[in-house]
Amino acid sequence: MPERDVVSWNAIIAGYVQNGQGCESLKLFSQMQLAGMKADSVTVSSILPACANLADLEQGKKIHDLIRSSGFESDVFVGSALVDMYAKCRSIENARHVFDKMSRRDVVTWNSMIAGYAQNGLGDEALMLMYKMQLTGMKPNSVTVMSVLAVCTNLTALQQGEEIHGFVIRGGLESDAIVGSALVVMYAKCGNIVNAHQVFDRIPQRDVALWNAIISGYAMHGHGEETLKLFYEMQKASITPDGITLTSVLSACSHAGLVNEGWQYFRSMSHDYGIMRTVEHYACMVDLLGRSGCLREAQHLINKMPLEPDACVLGALLGACRMHGNIELAECVAERLFVLEPQNAGNYVLMSNIYATAGRGDDVAKIRKMMKDRGLIKNPGCSWIEVDNKAHAFYVGDKSHPQAEVIYAMLESLAGKMKDAGYAPNMHFVLQDVEEEDKGLVLYGHSEKLAIIFGLINTCPGTPIRVINNLRMCGDCHTATKFISSFVGREIFVRDTNRFHHFRDGICSCGDYW
Protein backbone atom coordinates (compact mmCIF):
# COMPACT_ATOMS: atom_id res chain seq x y z
CA MET A 1 0.00 0.00 0.00
CA PRO A 2 1.52 3.33 -1.03
CA GLU A 3 -0.37 5.18 1.70
CA ARG A 4 -1.30 3.75 5.07
CA ASP A 5 -3.59 5.45 7.55
CA VAL A 6 -4.17 4.49 11.18
CA VAL A 7 -7.05 2.19 10.19
CA SER A 8 -4.72 0.20 7.92
CA TRP A 9 -2.09 -0.14 10.64
CA ASN A 10 -4.72 -1.15 13.20
CA ALA A 11 -6.11 -3.81 10.89
CA ILE A 12 -2.77 -5.50 10.24
CA ILE A 13 -1.68 -5.30 13.89
CA ALA A 14 -5.00 -6.76 15.10
CA GLY A 15 -4.73 -9.50 12.48
CA TYR A 16 -1.35 -10.65 13.74
CA VAL A 17 -2.52 -10.56 17.37
CA GLN A 18 -5.65 -12.59 16.61
CA ASN A 19 -3.52 -15.20 14.86
CA GLY A 20 -1.22 -15.62 17.83
CA GLN A 21 1.74 -13.78 16.35
CA GLY A 22 2.35 -11.34 19.17
CA CYS A 23 6.02 -10.68 18.42
CA GLU A 24 5.22 -9.72 14.81
CA SER A 25 2.43 -7.40 15.95
CA LEU A 26 4.78 -5.62 18.37
CA LYS A 27 7.32 -5.15 15.54
CA LEU A 28 4.59 -3.64 13.36
CA PHE A 29 3.58 -1.36 16.23
CA SER A 30 7.17 -0.10 16.42
CA GLN A 31 7.26 0.41 12.65
CA MET A 32 4.02 2.36 12.86
CA GLN A 33 5.56 4.73 15.40
CA LEU A 34 8.78 5.09 13.40
CA ALA A 35 6.68 5.97 10.35
CA GLY A 36 5.27 8.90 12.31
CA MET A 37 1.77 7.45 12.52
CA LYS A 38 0.08 8.34 15.80
CA ALA A 39 -1.62 5.45 17.58
CA ASP A 40 -5.26 5.81 18.59
CA SER A 41 -7.33 4.01 21.23
CA VAL A 42 -8.04 1.13 18.84
CA THR A 43 -4.32 0.63 18.27
CA VAL A 44 -3.45 0.30 21.94
CA SER A 45 -6.52 -1.86 22.62
CA SER A 46 -5.30 -4.18 19.86
CA ILE A 47 -1.63 -4.33 20.86
CA LEU A 48 -2.11 -4.83 24.62
CA PRO A 49 -3.38 -8.43 24.17
CA ALA A 50 -0.07 -9.20 22.44
CA CYS A 51 1.79 -8.11 25.59
CA ALA A 52 -0.66 -10.13 27.67
CA ASN A 53 -0.21 -13.32 25.64
CA LEU A 54 3.58 -12.94 25.66
CA ALA A 55 3.58 -11.99 29.38
CA ASP A 56 5.75 -9.02 28.32
CA LEU A 57 5.21 -6.72 31.30
CA GLU A 58 7.98 -4.29 30.32
CA GLN A 59 6.47 -3.62 26.89
CA GLY A 60 3.01 -3.44 28.43
CA LYS A 61 4.14 -0.73 30.82
CA LYS A 62 5.62 1.28 27.93
CA ILE A 63 2.27 1.14 26.13
CA HIS A 64 0.57 2.18 29.38
CA ASP A 65 2.83 5.26 29.44
CA LEU A 66 1.74 6.03 25.87
CA ILE A 67 -1.90 5.66 26.93
CA ARG A 68 -1.41 8.17 29.76
CA SER A 69 0.31 10.72 27.53
CA SER A 70 -2.35 10.30 24.82
CA GLY A 71 -5.29 10.66 27.20
CA PHE A 72 -6.81 7.24 26.49
CA GLU A 73 -7.15 6.14 30.13
CA SER A 74 -10.85 7.02 30.28
CA ASP A 75 -11.63 4.72 27.33
CA VAL A 76 -13.40 1.64 28.72
CA PHE A 77 -11.97 -0.67 26.02
CA VAL A 78 -8.44 0.52 26.69
CA GLY A 79 -8.94 0.15 30.45
CA SER A 80 -10.25 -3.40 30.07
CA ALA A 81 -7.27 -4.32 27.88
CA LEU A 82 -4.87 -2.84 30.46
CA VAL A 83 -6.46 -4.80 33.30
CA ASP A 84 -6.23 -7.99 31.26
CA MET A 85 -2.60 -7.31 30.29
CA TYR A 86 -1.43 -6.67 33.87
CA ALA A 87 -3.33 -9.69 35.20
CA LYS A 88 -1.85 -12.04 32.60
CA CYS A 89 1.60 -10.64 33.32
CA ARG A 90 0.99 -11.56 36.98
CA SER A 91 1.04 -7.93 38.08
CA ILE A 92 -2.32 -8.10 39.82
CA GLU A 93 -1.74 -4.97 41.94
CA ASN A 94 -1.31 -2.85 38.80
CA ALA A 95 -4.38 -4.48 37.28
CA ARG A 96 -6.47 -3.55 40.31
CA HIS A 97 -5.02 -0.01 40.34
CA VAL A 98 -6.14 0.52 36.73
CA PHE A 99 -9.53 -1.04 37.50
CA ASP A 100 -10.13 1.20 40.53
CA LYS A 101 -9.19 4.37 38.61
CA MET A 102 -11.69 3.70 35.79
CA SER A 103 -14.66 6.05 35.97
CA ARG A 104 -16.78 3.77 33.78
CA ARG A 105 -16.70 -0.04 33.64
CA ASP A 106 -18.60 -2.44 31.42
CA VAL A 107 -19.08 -6.18 31.91
CA VAL A 108 -15.83 -6.88 30.01
CA THR A 109 -13.89 -4.75 32.49
CA TRP A 110 -15.37 -6.59 35.46
CA ASN A 111 -14.74 -9.95 33.80
CA SER A 112 -11.11 -9.04 33.11
CA MET A 113 -10.47 -8.20 36.75
CA ILE A 114 -12.38 -11.23 38.09
CA ALA A 115 -10.58 -13.56 35.67
CA GLY A 116 -7.29 -11.92 36.64
CA TYR A 117 -7.82 -12.77 40.28
CA ALA A 118 -8.88 -16.31 39.39
CA GLN A 119 -5.87 -16.90 37.11
CA ASN A 120 -3.47 -15.63 39.78
CA GLY A 121 -4.78 -17.99 42.45
CA LEU A 122 -6.73 -15.31 44.33
CA GLY A 123 -10.03 -17.11 44.40
CA ASP A 124 -11.55 -15.35 47.41
CA GLU A 125 -10.87 -11.96 45.82
CA ALA A 126 -12.49 -13.10 42.56
CA LEU A 127 -15.65 -14.20 44.37
CA MET A 128 -15.80 -11.00 46.43
CA LEU A 129 -15.47 -8.89 43.29
CA MET A 130 -18.31 -10.72 41.58
CA TYR A 131 -20.57 -10.00 44.54
CA LYS A 132 -19.47 -6.34 44.41
CA MET A 133 -20.19 -6.32 40.67
CA GLN A 134 -23.80 -7.29 41.33
CA LEU A 135 -24.17 -4.63 44.05
CA THR A 136 -23.26 -1.96 41.48
CA GLY A 137 -26.12 -3.14 39.27
CA MET A 138 -23.86 -4.76 36.67
CA LYS A 139 -25.25 -8.15 35.64
CA PRO A 140 -22.66 -10.95 35.34
CA ASN A 141 -22.73 -12.94 32.10
CA SER A 142 -21.60 -16.44 31.13
CA VAL A 143 -17.93 -15.35 31.03
CA THR A 144 -18.18 -14.08 34.62
CA VAL A 145 -19.78 -17.33 35.71
CA MET A 146 -17.07 -19.41 34.03
CA SER A 147 -14.35 -17.55 35.95
CA VAL A 148 -15.97 -17.86 39.37
CA LEU A 149 -16.96 -21.48 38.84
CA ALA A 150 -13.31 -22.24 38.06
CA VAL A 151 -12.47 -20.59 41.39
CA CYS A 152 -15.02 -22.71 43.26
CA THR A 153 -13.63 -25.81 41.56
CA ASN A 154 -10.03 -25.00 42.50
CA LEU A 155 -11.00 -24.12 46.08
CA THR A 156 -13.44 -27.06 46.23
CA ALA A 157 -15.87 -24.50 47.61
CA LEU A 158 -19.11 -26.43 47.14
CA GLN A 159 -21.33 -24.05 49.07
CA GLN A 160 -20.16 -21.05 47.05
CA GLY A 161 -20.47 -23.10 43.87
CA GLU A 162 -24.08 -23.84 44.77
CA GLU A 163 -24.68 -20.11 45.22
CA ILE A 164 -23.27 -19.45 41.74
CA HIS A 165 -25.50 -22.22 40.39
CA GLY A 166 -28.48 -20.40 41.90
CA PHE A 167 -27.46 -17.26 40.03
CA VAL A 168 -27.09 -19.29 36.82
CA ILE A 169 -30.65 -20.58 37.18
CA ARG A 170 -32.06 -17.13 37.94
CA GLY A 171 -30.14 -15.66 35.01
CA GLY A 172 -31.43 -18.26 32.57
CA LEU A 173 -27.91 -19.54 31.80
CA GLU A 174 -28.32 -23.17 32.83
CA SER A 175 -29.10 -24.38 29.30
CA ASP A 176 -25.81 -22.87 28.04
CA ALA A 177 -23.57 -25.88 27.26
CA ILE A 178 -20.37 -24.01 28.20
CA VAL A 179 -21.72 -22.87 31.56
CA GLY A 180 -23.24 -26.31 32.06
CA SER A 181 -19.86 -27.97 31.49
CA ALA A 182 -18.29 -25.70 34.11
CA LEU A 183 -21.07 -26.56 36.57
CA VAL A 184 -20.64 -30.29 35.94
CA VAL A 185 -16.88 -30.02 36.53
CA MET A 186 -17.40 -27.94 39.68
CA TYR A 187 -19.87 -30.37 41.24
CA ALA A 188 -17.81 -33.42 40.27
CA LYS A 189 -14.55 -32.02 41.66
CA CYS A 190 -16.31 -30.82 44.81
CA GLY A 191 -17.54 -34.36 45.43
CA ASN A 192 -21.20 -34.15 44.39
CA ILE A 193 -21.48 -36.35 41.29
CA VAL A 194 -25.28 -36.60 41.74
CA ASN A 195 -25.73 -32.85 41.24
CA ALA A 196 -23.24 -32.96 38.37
CA HIS A 197 -25.42 -35.50 36.57
CA GLN A 198 -28.59 -33.51 37.28
CA VAL A 199 -27.03 -30.44 35.62
CA PHE A 200 -25.97 -32.60 32.67
CA ASP A 201 -29.50 -34.00 32.26
CA ARG A 202 -31.02 -30.51 32.08
CA ILE A 203 -28.92 -29.36 29.12
CA PRO A 204 -30.68 -30.16 25.82
CA GLN A 205 -27.78 -29.50 23.42
CA ARG A 206 -24.71 -31.45 24.54
CA ASP A 207 -21.35 -30.96 22.86
CA VAL A 208 -18.19 -33.02 23.29
CA ALA A 209 -16.95 -30.76 26.13
CA LEU A 210 -20.09 -31.40 28.17
CA TRP A 211 -19.90 -35.16 27.59
CA ASN A 212 -16.21 -35.08 28.57
CA ALA A 213 -17.08 -33.21 31.77
CA ILE A 214 -19.60 -35.80 32.99
CA ILE A 215 -17.53 -38.80 31.83
CA SER A 216 -14.44 -37.39 33.55
CA GLY A 217 -16.48 -36.76 36.69
CA TYR A 218 -17.66 -40.35 36.94
CA ALA A 219 -14.16 -41.62 36.19
CA MET A 220 -12.73 -39.42 38.96
CA HIS A 221 -15.23 -40.89 41.41
CA GLY A 222 -14.20 -44.41 40.43
CA HIS A 223 -17.53 -45.41 38.89
CA GLY A 224 -16.13 -47.51 36.05
CA GLU A 225 -19.32 -49.15 34.81
CA GLU A 226 -21.24 -45.86 34.83
CA THR A 227 -18.41 -44.15 32.94
CA LEU A 228 -18.45 -46.77 30.20
CA LYS A 229 -22.25 -46.55 30.00
CA LEU A 230 -22.02 -42.77 29.48
CA PHE A 231 -19.33 -43.31 26.85
CA TYR A 232 -21.71 -45.64 25.00
CA GLU A 233 -24.54 -43.07 25.27
CA MET A 234 -22.23 -40.37 23.94
CA GLN A 235 -21.55 -42.36 20.79
CA LYS A 236 -25.22 -43.28 20.48
CA ALA A 237 -25.95 -39.52 20.47
CA SER A 238 -23.60 -39.20 17.45
CA ILE A 239 -20.99 -37.21 19.41
CA THR A 240 -17.47 -38.13 18.30
CA PRO A 241 -15.14 -38.71 21.27
CA ASP A 242 -11.74 -37.03 21.39
CA GLY A 243 -8.47 -37.71 23.18
CA ILE A 244 -9.79 -36.22 26.44
CA THR A 245 -12.75 -38.60 26.36
CA LEU A 246 -10.51 -41.64 25.97
CA THR A 247 -8.21 -40.48 28.76
CA SER A 248 -11.20 -40.43 31.11
CA VAL A 249 -12.47 -43.80 29.86
CA LEU A 250 -9.06 -45.44 30.38
CA SER A 251 -8.76 -43.80 33.80
CA ALA A 252 -12.16 -45.22 34.76
CA CYS A 253 -11.05 -48.69 33.64
CA SER A 254 -7.94 -48.28 35.77
CA HIS A 255 -9.83 -47.32 38.94
CA ALA A 256 -12.31 -50.16 38.44
CA GLY A 257 -9.77 -52.81 37.41
CA LEU A 258 -11.39 -53.34 34.00
CA VAL A 259 -8.31 -54.67 32.19
CA ASN A 260 -10.00 -56.28 29.19
CA GLU A 261 -12.19 -53.24 28.54
CA GLY A 262 -9.18 -50.94 28.91
CA TRP A 263 -7.18 -52.90 26.35
CA GLN A 264 -10.19 -52.86 23.99
CA TYR A 265 -10.53 -49.06 24.08
CA PHE A 266 -6.78 -48.48 23.98
CA ARG A 267 -6.30 -50.67 20.90
CA SER A 268 -9.33 -49.22 19.08
CA MET A 269 -8.44 -45.54 19.56
CA SER A 270 -6.84 -45.03 16.16
CA HIS A 271 -8.97 -47.45 14.13
CA ASP A 272 -12.44 -46.70 15.55
CA TYR A 273 -12.11 -43.08 16.66
CA GLY A 274 -9.20 -41.66 14.64
CA ILE A 275 -7.41 -40.62 17.82
CA MET A 276 -3.62 -40.70 18.08
CA ARG A 277 -2.40 -42.08 21.38
CA THR A 278 -0.61 -39.57 23.62
CA VAL A 279 1.62 -40.02 26.65
CA GLU A 280 -1.48 -39.49 28.83
CA HIS A 281 -3.20 -42.50 27.26
CA TYR A 282 -0.14 -44.67 27.81
CA ALA A 283 0.08 -43.49 31.43
CA CYS A 284 -3.54 -44.54 32.01
CA MET A 285 -2.91 -47.94 30.45
CA VAL A 286 0.26 -48.50 32.49
CA ASP A 287 -1.67 -47.52 35.61
CA LEU A 288 -4.46 -49.97 34.72
CA LEU A 289 -2.06 -52.85 34.12
CA GLY A 290 0.03 -52.00 37.17
CA ARG A 291 -2.92 -51.79 39.57
CA SER A 292 -4.13 -55.15 38.27
CA GLY A 293 -0.76 -56.75 39.02
CA CYS A 294 0.32 -57.07 35.38
CA LEU A 295 3.65 -55.37 36.05
CA ARG A 296 5.68 -57.07 33.35
CA GLU A 297 2.95 -56.35 30.81
CA ALA A 298 3.02 -52.69 31.87
CA GLN A 299 6.80 -52.63 31.56
CA HIS A 300 6.59 -54.19 28.10
CA LEU A 301 4.07 -51.54 27.01
CA ILE A 302 6.46 -48.80 28.15
CA ASN A 303 9.39 -50.38 26.32
CA LYS A 304 7.55 -50.47 22.99
CA MET A 305 6.03 -46.96 23.28
CA PRO A 306 6.57 -44.87 20.13
CA LEU A 307 6.82 -41.86 22.46
CA GLU A 308 9.38 -41.16 25.14
CA PRO A 309 7.83 -42.20 28.50
CA ASP A 310 7.50 -39.23 30.84
CA ALA A 311 7.34 -39.03 34.62
CA CYS A 312 3.60 -39.76 34.67
CA VAL A 313 4.08 -43.06 32.82
CA LEU A 314 7.04 -44.18 34.96
CA GLY A 315 5.39 -42.86 38.13
CA ALA A 316 2.34 -45.03 37.44
CA LEU A 317 4.58 -48.10 37.22
CA LEU A 318 6.47 -47.17 40.39
CA GLY A 319 3.18 -46.78 42.24
CA ALA A 320 2.14 -50.23 41.05
CA CYS A 321 5.43 -51.64 42.30
CA ARG A 322 4.65 -50.22 45.74
CA MET A 323 1.17 -51.72 45.63
CA HIS A 324 2.43 -55.19 44.72
CA GLY A 325 5.80 -55.13 46.52
CA ASN A 326 8.00 -55.60 43.46
CA ILE A 327 11.26 -54.11 44.72
CA GLU A 328 13.49 -55.19 41.84
CA LEU A 329 11.35 -53.49 39.19
CA ALA A 330 10.78 -50.50 41.48
CA GLU A 331 14.51 -49.88 41.74
CA CYS A 332 14.86 -49.85 37.94
CA VAL A 333 11.95 -47.45 37.51
CA ALA A 334 13.05 -45.20 40.37
CA GLU A 335 16.53 -44.89 38.87
CA ARG A 336 15.00 -43.53 35.66
CA LEU A 337 12.72 -41.18 37.57
CA PHE A 338 15.59 -39.81 39.67
CA VAL A 339 17.32 -38.83 36.41
CA LEU A 340 14.14 -37.51 34.78
CA GLU A 341 12.94 -35.58 37.85
CA PRO A 342 15.90 -35.16 40.20
CA GLN A 343 14.09 -32.54 42.28
CA ASN A 344 10.76 -34.36 42.70
CA ALA A 345 10.74 -35.45 46.34
CA GLY A 346 7.64 -37.59 45.78
CA ASN A 347 9.59 -40.21 43.82
CA TYR A 348 12.14 -40.61 46.61
CA VAL A 349 9.41 -40.83 49.24
CA LEU A 350 7.59 -43.50 47.24
CA MET A 351 10.79 -45.58 46.91
CA SER A 352 11.43 -45.10 50.63
CA ASN A 353 7.90 -46.39 51.28
CA ILE A 354 8.60 -49.50 49.22
CA TYR A 355 11.78 -50.23 51.17
CA ALA A 356 10.08 -49.52 54.51
CA THR A 357 7.25 -51.93 53.75
CA ALA A 358 9.83 -54.62 52.93
CA GLY A 359 11.65 -53.94 56.21
CA ARG A 360 14.81 -52.72 54.44
CA GLY A 361 15.79 -50.00 56.88
CA ASP A 362 19.30 -49.50 55.48
CA ASP A 363 17.87 -48.71 52.05
CA VAL A 364 15.34 -46.33 53.60
CA ALA A 365 18.27 -44.52 55.26
CA LYS A 366 20.06 -44.31 51.89
CA ILE A 367 17.04 -42.69 50.26
CA ARG A 368 16.71 -40.21 53.11
CA LYS A 369 20.40 -39.32 52.83
CA MET A 370 20.02 -38.89 49.08
CA MET A 371 17.11 -36.50 49.68
CA LYS A 372 19.08 -34.57 52.29
CA ASP A 373 22.13 -34.27 50.04
CA ARG A 374 19.94 -32.93 47.24
CA GLY A 375 18.09 -30.53 49.50
CA LEU A 376 14.74 -32.24 49.03
CA ILE A 377 11.93 -32.07 51.56
CA LYS A 378 8.84 -34.29 51.57
CA ASN A 379 5.72 -32.37 50.62
CA PRO A 380 3.76 -32.20 53.90
CA GLY A 381 0.34 -33.80 53.87
CA CYS A 382 -2.41 -31.19 53.94
CA SER A 383 -6.18 -31.59 53.96
CA TRP A 384 -8.92 -28.98 53.53
CA ILE A 385 -12.54 -28.93 54.56
CA GLU A 386 -15.10 -26.21 53.90
CA VAL A 387 -17.50 -25.30 56.72
CA ASP A 388 -19.83 -22.29 56.56
CA ASN A 389 -18.16 -20.96 53.39
CA LYS A 390 -14.73 -20.99 55.03
CA ALA A 391 -11.89 -23.38 54.19
CA HIS A 392 -9.96 -24.92 57.09
CA ALA A 393 -6.55 -26.50 56.40
CA PHE A 394 -4.82 -29.16 58.50
CA TYR A 395 -1.29 -30.55 58.32
CA VAL A 396 0.16 -33.76 59.77
CA GLY A 397 0.28 -33.47 63.55
CA ASP A 398 -1.28 -30.02 63.33
CA LYS A 399 -2.15 -28.50 66.73
CA SER A 400 -2.35 -24.87 65.64
CA HIS A 401 -6.11 -24.84 65.02
CA PRO A 402 -8.20 -23.09 67.76
CA GLN A 403 -10.20 -26.32 68.19
CA ALA A 404 -7.15 -28.60 68.27
CA GLU A 405 -7.80 -29.79 71.84
CA VAL A 406 -11.39 -30.80 71.06
CA ILE A 407 -10.35 -32.41 67.74
CA TYR A 408 -7.68 -34.59 69.33
CA ALA A 409 -9.97 -35.53 72.22
CA MET A 410 -12.65 -36.77 69.81
CA LEU A 411 -10.01 -38.52 67.70
CA GLU A 412 -8.71 -40.34 70.77
CA SER A 413 -12.25 -41.39 71.72
CA LEU A 414 -12.90 -42.76 68.22
CA ALA A 415 -9.50 -44.46 68.17
CA GLY A 416 -10.52 -46.47 71.23
CA LYS A 417 -13.75 -47.58 69.58
CA MET A 418 -11.88 -48.48 66.38
CA LYS A 419 -9.40 -50.63 68.28
CA ASP A 420 -12.25 -52.46 69.99
CA ALA A 421 -13.75 -53.06 66.52
CA GLY A 422 -10.52 -54.56 65.21
CA TYR A 423 -8.62 -51.56 63.82
CA ALA A 424 -4.82 -51.67 64.14
CA PRO A 425 -2.65 -48.76 62.90
CA ASN A 426 -0.55 -49.65 59.85
CA MET A 427 2.95 -48.55 60.83
CA HIS A 428 4.25 -48.82 57.24
CA PHE A 429 2.68 -45.45 56.52
CA VAL A 430 4.90 -43.62 59.04
CA LEU A 431 7.88 -42.09 57.25
CA GLN A 432 9.17 -40.00 60.15
CA ASP A 433 12.21 -41.32 61.99
CA VAL A 434 10.49 -41.93 65.35
CA GLU A 435 10.40 -44.67 67.95
CA GLU A 436 8.10 -47.61 67.24
CA GLU A 437 5.77 -46.80 70.13
CA ASP A 438 5.33 -43.24 68.80
CA LYS A 439 4.33 -44.29 65.28
CA GLY A 440 0.70 -44.83 66.22
CA LEU A 441 0.52 -41.26 67.51
CA VAL A 442 1.91 -39.96 64.23
CA LEU A 443 -0.74 -41.88 62.29
CA TYR A 444 -3.53 -40.47 64.45
CA GLY A 445 -2.34 -36.98 63.48
CA HIS A 446 -2.58 -37.48 59.69
CA SER A 447 -4.24 -34.48 58.10
CA GLU A 448 -7.21 -36.40 56.63
CA LYS A 449 -8.25 -37.63 60.09
CA LEU A 450 -7.95 -34.15 61.60
CA ALA A 451 -10.07 -32.57 58.85
CA ILE A 452 -12.73 -35.29 59.13
CA ILE A 453 -12.99 -34.90 62.91
CA PHE A 454 -13.21 -31.12 62.56
CA GLY A 455 -16.08 -31.61 60.11
CA LEU A 456 -17.89 -33.96 62.48
CA ILE A 457 -17.60 -31.43 65.30
CA ASN A 458 -18.71 -28.40 63.29
CA THR A 459 -21.53 -29.70 61.10
CA CYS A 460 -25.02 -30.94 61.87
CA PRO A 461 -25.64 -34.70 62.27
CA GLY A 462 -26.26 -36.35 58.93
CA THR A 463 -24.33 -33.72 56.95
CA PRO A 464 -21.86 -35.27 54.49
CA ILE A 465 -18.20 -34.55 55.22
CA ARG A 466 -16.10 -33.49 52.21
CA VAL A 467 -12.31 -33.38 52.53
CA ILE A 468 -9.61 -32.61 49.98
CA ASN A 469 -6.11 -34.04 50.38
CA ASN A 470 -3.00 -32.88 48.51
CA LEU A 471 -1.46 -36.37 48.49
CA ARG A 472 -2.61 -39.90 47.78
CA MET A 473 -4.73 -41.13 50.71
CA CYS A 474 -2.63 -43.48 52.80
CA GLY A 475 -3.84 -46.99 53.56
CA ASP A 476 -4.12 -46.37 57.29
CA CYS A 477 -6.30 -43.28 56.84
CA HIS A 478 -8.41 -45.21 54.34
CA THR A 479 -9.03 -48.01 56.85
CA ALA A 480 -9.65 -45.59 59.72
CA THR A 481 -12.15 -43.55 57.68
CA LYS A 482 -14.16 -46.68 56.93
CA PHE A 483 -14.46 -47.33 60.66
CA ILE A 484 -15.34 -43.70 61.39
CA SER A 485 -18.08 -43.63 58.73
CA SER A 486 -19.72 -46.69 60.32
CA PHE A 487 -19.52 -45.27 63.86
CA VAL A 488 -20.88 -41.79 63.14
CA GLY A 489 -23.42 -42.68 60.44
CA ARG A 490 -22.11 -40.06 58.02
CA GLU A 491 -21.10 -40.09 54.39
CA ILE A 492 -17.48 -39.02 54.08
CA PHE A 493 -15.98 -37.92 50.76
CA VAL A 494 -12.20 -37.66 50.43
CA ARG A 495 -10.61 -36.40 47.24
CA ASP A 496 -6.92 -37.20 46.92
CA THR A 497 -4.55 -36.65 43.99
CA ASN A 498 -5.91 -39.70 42.15
CA ARG A 499 -9.63 -39.99 42.77
CA PHE A 500 -12.59 -39.62 45.13
CA HIS A 501 -13.27 -42.02 47.98
CA HIS A 502 -16.89 -42.18 49.10
CA PHE A 503 -17.17 -43.77 52.56
CA ARG A 504 -20.52 -44.96 53.84
CA ASP A 505 -21.44 -47.48 56.56
CA GLY A 506 -17.87 -48.76 56.76
CA ILE A 507 -17.45 -49.30 53.01
CA CYS A 508 -15.53 -47.23 50.44
CA SER A 509 -16.70 -46.77 46.85
CA CYS A 510 -13.24 -47.80 45.61
CA GLY A 511 -13.72 -51.30 46.98
CA ASP A 512 -10.24 -50.97 48.54
CA TYR A 513 -8.86 -50.90 44.99
CA TRP A 514 -6.92 -47.70 44.55
Q: Can you count the helices?
A: 26
Q: What kind of sheet is the major sheet?
A: 6 strands, mixed
- Specify the helix fraction band: 55-70%
Kindly report the average pLDDT value. Answer: 90
Account of the 3D structure:
The chain has 514 residues and is mainly α. It has 26 helices and 6 strands. It has a 6-stranded mixed sheet with strand order 2-1-3-4-5-6, covered by helices on one side. Helix 5 (76-88) packs parallel to helix 7 (107-119).
Brief write-up:
The protein has 514 residues and is mainly alpha-helical. The protein has 26 helices and six strands. Strands 2-1-3-4-5-6 form a six-stranded mixed beta sheet, covered by helices on one side.
Labels describing this entry:
six-stranded mixed sheet; globular; single chain; 514 residues; 5% strand; 26 helices; mainly alpha
Please give the structural blueprint:
Layout: H1 6-18, H2 22-34, H3 41-54, H4 57-70, H5 76-88, H6 92-101, H7 107-119, H8 123-135, H9 142-155, H10 158-170, H11 177-189, H12 193-202, H13 208-220, H14 224-236, H15 243-256, H16 259-273, H17 279-291, H18 295-303, H19 311-324, H20 327-340, H21 345-357, H22 361-373, E1 382-387, E2 390-395, H23 404-420, H24 436-444, H25 447-458, E3 465-469, H26 475-488, E4 492-495, E5 500-504, E6 507-508
Parallel strand pairs: 3-4
Antiparallel strand pairs: 1-2, 1-3, 4-5, 5-6
